[in-house]
Design a protein that fits this description.
By secondary structure, the chain is mainly alpha-helical. It contains 12 helices and 6 strands.
Amino acid sequence: MADIWSVYTATPPISRTVATAVFLSSVGIYTGMLSSYPFFFHYSLLFTWPPAIYRLLTSFLLTGPNIAVLFDTYFVFTYMIQLEGNAKFSKKEDLIWYLMFTGTIIILFTGAGIYLQALITTLSYTVTQDQRGMNAHFYVLTIPAQLMPYCLLLVQLLFPNGWYNVKVGLTGLFAAHLHDFLTRIYPEFGNGPNLIPTPGILKWIISIPRIQQVVYGQPSDSPRDTGRPAGPLPDAWRSKGPGRRLVRFGSPAVCMV
């Protein structure tokens, strides 16, 4: 368990947080431990008291039933890791702003509903823009990487409410393309500015020292990051005198100076 936990905490923080939320929410709903009501978004619920603002987030956390719980969580986790390692989203606030912008477009153009399928399509499109000319594995098939989001849309036809899922997925495709156009295509080919730069408020929040120092779940002022030797002893003890080694002869331990 310790090794599994170490691997888990070593993954990029935003990726593991989003994927964990998706998996636990879906398992909780399909096992009956949670109600699905808080995960459905409708505009009218924003005007209740208190406003159900949390639904702007929870509506992106519900997968399909049965085996789709594993596949959808896998796609979210895989694509999020690739985005978090992308130079375009090297700063946490840039990735968070990307999720906020594309999520807003998905909600505006989809209307009421649950939006995880649209988010997966969005992530897939953005990731594969940097993989043109490469191949990707889609289940048992090998396809050009840039076709991955369209294959994800076609697969949705095999599930219940297939056409509705495709419609939702198309809004995700539009959101990803719009973000790419405003932040990359127009500045590069139209010699214009980035039309949706990351808001300063996000940069300020991420620049708060306690948030900025956290690296993959571990504060950067830990012994591993500051160069201080790790161990349970206080710094004052570790800095006094040369080290000593205990060598065991039989049962007693003898200190060799």
